[in-house]
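User: Hi! I have a protein structure encoded as tokens and I'd like to know what sequence might fold into it. I'm fairly new to this, so please keep things simple.
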């Protein structure tokens, strides 16, 4: 199965109440499991991103079902929710009953922390440091991809709590099963 792991960075007025309507994409980072390559797309390059996402059998992200996909759908002619997805944050929350930061899982599971945070990326973007934002986004894609592969292999992820290191048991058995209804493509020629 072709797995596209992705992350987005945004700018705009985030009200913190789940309303992302004023947020705009700045950068999208992706990893393609078939080619092994990482690539990125600025907002003006999104037309080149759509065929990549449409080629996916599965989209993998962190908080992607709640944040990334709805924001990307503002720009996409179709509906990205029709492509099968695995949102690692949702998987963790379903088992643990609460949300964890990507950084917490990365440090405990992989021994590597995030290179920065989303708020700093917003400031970099405002200051015209576009390459820093691109690299930060791709770092998050690398971490998400490594966490996904770890969870597939070990059927768990780790996190640090006030009691120390803990493990979250996950069931990845359905993650890479084919979707019953294929995604409709809207950017490829018919």
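Assistant: Happy to help. Inverse folding works backwards from shape to sequence: for each of the 190 positions I chose a residue that suits the local structure. Here it is:
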């Amino acid at each position: 199965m072709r797995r596209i792991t992705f992350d987005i960075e945004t700018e705009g007025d985030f009200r913190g109440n789940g309303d992302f309507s004023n947020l705009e994409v700045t950068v999208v980072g992706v990893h393609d499991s078939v080619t092994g390559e990482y690539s990125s797309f600025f907002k003006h390059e999104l037309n080149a991103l759509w065929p990549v996402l449409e080629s996916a059998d599965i989209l993998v992200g962190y908080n992607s079902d709640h944040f990334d996909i709805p924001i990307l759908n503002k720009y996409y002619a179709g509906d990205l929710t029709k492509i099968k997805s695995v949102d690692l944050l949702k998987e963790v929350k379903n088992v643990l009953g609460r949300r964890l930061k990507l950084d917490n899982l990365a440090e405990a599971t992989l021994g590597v922390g995030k290179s920065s945070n989303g708020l700093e990326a917003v400031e970099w973007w405002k200051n015209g440091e576009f390459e820093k934002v691109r690299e930060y986004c791709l770092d998050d894609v690398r971490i998400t991809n490594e966490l996904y592969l770890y969870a597939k292999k070990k059927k768990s992820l780790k996190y640090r709590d006030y009691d120390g290191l803990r493990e979250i048991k996950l069931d990845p058995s359905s993650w890479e099963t084919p979707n019953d209804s294929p995604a409709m493509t809207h950017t490829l020629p018919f």
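A useful reference point when you look it over: Residues 3-173 form a domain with the Nucleotidyltransferase; domain 5 fold (CATH 3.30.420.10). Feel free to ask if any position seems puzzling.
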